[in-house]
Amino acid sequence: MRRLLSPALLPLALCVALLGGNAMAQEFSSLEERMSEAEFKAAGLDKLTPEELANLNTWLSGKVQPAATAAVPVDDRRGFR
Question: How far is CA 19 from the centre of its chain?
Answer without folding.
Answer: 6
